[in-house]
Amino acid sequence: MFAFALLIHPTCWALTPYPLFGPPPQEPAVTTYKAVPGEHAPATYGELDNWLAQRARVPSINMLGGDFWLVSRFSPGRTVSDWVVMFDNTYYDNATILVLGDDGLYRQFESGADTGLNDMPRGTAAVTLAPGHHYAIVIHVMSKFYTALPRIDVQTRLQYHKRRASESALMLGSLGVLFGLGIFILFVGLWIRDRSYTLYGCQALILVVGWSFFFGVPQGWLGINTEPINFAQWFILLPVVHARFTIRFLDLRRHAPRMANVGYGIALVSIMALPISLFFPSLAFLIATLLVSAVVLFSASMGVWSLLHGVRRARFYTLAFMAVLLPGTIILPVNFGLVPSMVDNADLLTLIGNSCEAMLLAFALADHVKLVEDGRERFRRGMQEAIAKASIDPLTGLGNRLAFNVMIEEITRRENTDPALGTWQIAMIDLDGLKHVNDNQGHERGDELLRAVGEGLARLGDLIRAFRLGGDEFALIAYGDELGQQRLARALAELDRTLRESDYPDAGISFGICSASTDQRQFSSADFAELIREADRMMYVHKSRRRMERVADRPLSELRSD
Asked: Which of 115, 201, 297, 363 could form a disulfide linkage to 185, CB 3.0–4.6 angstroms apart?
């Protein structure tokens, strides 16, 4: 609908295209004639009318290629004598530009992709024109195909240099943006092994090569003869990569599998069209235009569809294709020869649109990275929360046996850099009287006793980590010197006294503390296993001594009844 609105707009049918990149040139009317092999151009301005009478006039050039004469008459209206004749608005293989004047002027220039003489971004001829005289521009052009209806522009040399500087800077800047982003994103894709990044990097580099061929960089700047390959083959290759990039980036195989098959179909047709374009070069540009139009329409519509269906990564993606659709809508009717160009350099405008698309798609890829990282962060936090829940005893809030083993593994992975400050200590603790409380006062009362012990152990200090290993068994991992071990023993004894003097007279704790060697720097799992066994043995010794003390304190009558 947007393309149709542009086509019916009067601007599309204006005789003079809208200037975007510099001072507007004068565009005299062009008459087209069919060229016959062996024909020669007129030698003087006076022979022109007689020469034209013998030519077969045609409405316009054939977009599928051929030989044509283009004739335009011009009379300079300024006092300026330095002028530039430009043959532009289309791609062509060879052109002979002849300028004739009634003052006897005869200047001939060669231009075109095959000659390597194309003055980028268009073929130009510098001439000196005298005010008040009449001149004719006669161009013999030959090409396998044409990309638009050709135009002959005439401009003063000063205006032309301003315009050329602007267009050349924009062309090279756009190619530089595409090349830089393509190399960077391709490297990122290969580094992180993400195929969507790799495909987009390849797409940007294909655009760089295709546009460089179009503007004659290999031929005019590097002197390379690229025949039979021209820019059209690169643009036919573009949908192969671009359709697959769209499918992977928007995850169409999961969200819209039928449309993903459409994308794969476009890629397959493009692969089949490549050899056809080489065998039938006159069809190359037509094929490229159809395929590029199809893949851009496919990608843009899939971007909008994904955006409407809540796919967040489609935000910048859809915006990027809006940057391509606008110049594409302008240039598409021109490429088919339906209308004259509504802007002075639609090809450069499309290249700028491609570079804007590349930048916006780079934002889309960066947004994709952020989404992936956010997902990974949520997963990491979820795993941490799950591990934390799995590592905490729900009754006492202390670490459980899993947390106890994990902490030992962490300790074994690092070195005790300064043994003079202390060493690792293990305390094994057994809660006495829990069964008696459960049997006589109920399990809820027993749970309160376990929580009280857990709260007491949790308050022992920052360098002491408490664990409930299961049932009535607890453990401590501490770091300190011999004085610290003595303070820990006194704190556990105080906790035992507090329990017996509170509401749990029959409860208490038995414990054993064992320290590693003070000069030991590295600990293994076997070292900690030995510490645990020794602390456990000392705990049972403490338990036996406490049992004997309780028996000694009981009255003789209770012992006889037992």
From this structure: 201
